[in-house]
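Note to self: keep these together.
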Amino acid sequence: MPFLLKLMLWLCRLKIFVPIAFLAWAILVPVNWTSSGLKVGSAKNITSSDIDKLSVSNVHPGSERFWGHIVMAYCFTFWTCYVLLKEYEKVASMRLEFLASEKRRADQFTVLVRNIPPDPDESVSELAEHFFLVHHPDHYLTHQVIYNANKLDKLVKKKKKLQNLLVYYRNKYERNSSKRPEMKTGWLGLWGKKVDAIDHHTEEIDKLSKEIALERENVTNDPSSIMPAAFVSFRTRWGAAVCAQTQQTRDPTLWLTEWAPEPRDVYWPNLAIPYVALTVRWLIIAGAFFFLAFFSMIPIAAVQSLASLEGIEKAAPWLKPVVEIRFIKSLIQGFMPGIVLKLFLSFLPTILMIMSKFEGFVSLSSLERRAASRYYIFLVINVIFGSVLTGTAFEQLYFFIHQSANQYPKIIGNAIALKATFFMSYIMADGWTSLAWEILMLKPLIIYYLKNMFLVKTEKDREEAMDAGSIGFNAGEPRIQLYFLLGLVYAAVTPAVLPFIIIFFGLAYLVFRHQIINVYNQEYESAAAFWPAVHGRILFALVLSQIVLLGLLSTKKAASSTPFLSALPLLTLWFYRYCKGRYESAFARYPLQEAMMKDLFERATEPGLNLKAYLQHAYVHPVFKASLEMTVRLRK
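Structure:
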């Protein structure tokens, strides 16, 4: 099973929460059963509902019971780090074994070379060939320059669409030959001149064929269409590993090399972006994401305040008798805020993927990794901090802004303790419901029926409409990690949240295992490249949980026990640095020893292998592949 799919299943296995969840309950439930209100910054008990009586919020200030929470914080930290260490070691080992045992692939022999310096006497292709013949004489095999074929690609896709429509109208005419099919030439066929549909599409296809031939000639012959980049292939994996992992010239900004993604993982439109433009694009997207992440809290806060009882009664006083009904009141308090937040987040993965494409990543896997990272940051800011601060401290925002930095953990700790009920409802409204939607595939089903009604013309259209696609790691993986974050934050604060988390992960494991095996298609293979980011985000959640508990205990007059908790964030950060130094290189580099062993084995088993024929056209742009395959057939 591909590594990315195994990663998704691992995130649902409950290795962190199950073994000690009931131990946490045994220690943390026997708390004081008195409650009183709290404003941010006070040291009284901070219970806002009955569920808070089972949390640290209901422990008397200065109580010796806080040692139980600190002990459980250490238990959760050590168990989480132990599991992560074993998993990191296992995943790194599996990655190397996978690379060693995998069948021959083009990306094992190929590197992507960017920022090739211009030369007035040589073309990019000649310059690349001469450079690698000189500096890698024993290992260089062949290369493929990169063309800016984006316009040609659009024309080819347009032609395929017209050919599909031509097939539809011809089939329609065959079913009823008494009348030629007609259409209007305006937008979507709603207006314009009425013409014969078959003749019209035939003429349009002929025109496009001429445009495509002209554009193909321009792309291949115009030097400005050739980008200063190339896919360079080597005779051995060892030679490719040396080239991909070393600096080629004295100037570190020229002849930049990196491992080439596998051919099906390449995102071809971004290969035409000049390398110098990538930094500018990164800066633009970083600023755009900052405003998207932080300023989206304003409409979320406004809508969530309207979704509360007080907000509804203020906006529509005449609804007060209705919202005071017990069932409606519980529905509004329990589910409305979570549903509102869910609606805001539904379109976010698509927006973040568009931003990643604009930023210029050259592979689908790197696009999904960057989009997943930003989606997780957005979830933490808006789901955790946004919901907590705007939900419990919105009226004291002025007070919060003017506090010193050392007061932030106290404010966040108090606020998170008060929001346990909200996150229980959020887990049910978002987590459990999303799993039901995942197994029912309601969204793809609706999209399929809409396409079937308006867009499906031929059997090819029907097959494309029925394709479930890939699992979408840019959206699914960060959401699963959000529940890791909630579980770690509330494990030692409000353990009543843990059963909801455990149910979510149990269901998620069953659902995603079924979907991965039976529904989704594999789009690419990244060999566990997601894992270092997953590991780092889980440790971030662990540090955040420790800071929250530290801030909460500092408001409860637990001065004697708080210093023992202060060492946990430092230990967690040290553990992160250790894992990064010990294992992360396995995900960024390919050991030369492994490459040489693979090469020697291949030479012994396949001495007559024609590797050049295998690699020569592996990285040809898709718009050129059809004509290339036709040429190969004619030669045969």
